[in-house]
């Protein structure tokens, strides 16, 4: 059973943390795990409870918890979530809530394709000088698509005698 819980722990520990190895979890991801798995129900277990338990199980100076400390935290939250059950049953209940869960990305902003946006970004409908800046496939040509690129080779912009100084002084 612990392996399922550990798998869930690792997925949440690494969620949004590209540098994380998945062995330690920060408070943000701990709260997310509790929320996504339904351990935090905002009645018996609130976000405040989750924060307090996290602070209690972590080492004084640490900002993360290990799986070992996570199990301690789950025992404590289990007592709150499943009142009246013995600690082992409560922990079992928590692990069942966690089973097979992965970090949800609900509420993540999706790009919208509103009518106007589609119309404005469709390069096939561009005319005039704007049309020149895209190839047939609609991909932008970048700076090459602009005809008037400034020549900044002189020491002052617009200086026409670039590279002639040494020739005159001899």
Biggest beta sheet attributes: 2 strands, antiparallel
Order of strands, widest sheet: 1-2
Q: Which shape, going by the Cα principal axes?
A: elongated
Strand content: under 5%
Q: Mean pLDDT, nearest integer?
A: 78
Subcellular location: Cytoplasm
Family: Belongs to the TPPP family.
Biased composition (Basic and acidic residues): 129-149
Protein name: Tubulin polymerization-promoting protein family member 2
What does this 3D model show about the protein?
It is a single chain. The chain is mainly α. 45% of the residues lie in helices and 4% in strands. The protein has eight helices and two strands; from the N terminus they run αβααβααααα. The longest helix has 15 residues.
Q: What attributes does this structure have?
A:
elongated, two-stranded antiparallel sheet, 8 helices, about 170 residues, single chain, mainly alpha
Task: List strands and helices in order, with pairings.
Elements: H1 2-14, E1 24-26, H2 27-36, H3 47-57, E2 64-66, H4 67-81, H5 87-98, H6 115-121, H7 128-131, H8 165-169
Antiparallel strand pairs: 1-2
């Amino acid at each position: 059973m612990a392996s399922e819980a550990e798998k869930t722990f690792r997925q949440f520990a690494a969620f949004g943390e590209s540098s994380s190895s998945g062995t330690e979890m920060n408070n943000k991801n701990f709260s997310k795990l509790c929320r996504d798995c339904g351990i935090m129900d905002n009645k018996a277990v609130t976000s405040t409870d989750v924060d307090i338990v996290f602070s209690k199980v972590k080492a004084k100076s640490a900002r993360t918890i290990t799986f070992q400390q996570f199990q301690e935290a789950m025992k404590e939250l289990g007592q709150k979530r499943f009142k009246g059950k013995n600690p082992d049953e409560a922990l079992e209940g928590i692990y069942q809530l966690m089973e097979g869960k992965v970090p949800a990305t609900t509420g993540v902003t999706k790009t919208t394709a509103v009518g106007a946006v589609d119309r404005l970004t469709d390069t096939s409908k561009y005319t005039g000088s704007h049309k020149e800046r895209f190839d047939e496939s609609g991909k932008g040509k970048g700076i090459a698509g602009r005809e008037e690129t400034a020549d900044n080779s002189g020491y002052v912009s617009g200086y026409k005698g670039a590279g002639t100084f040494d020739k005159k002084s001899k």
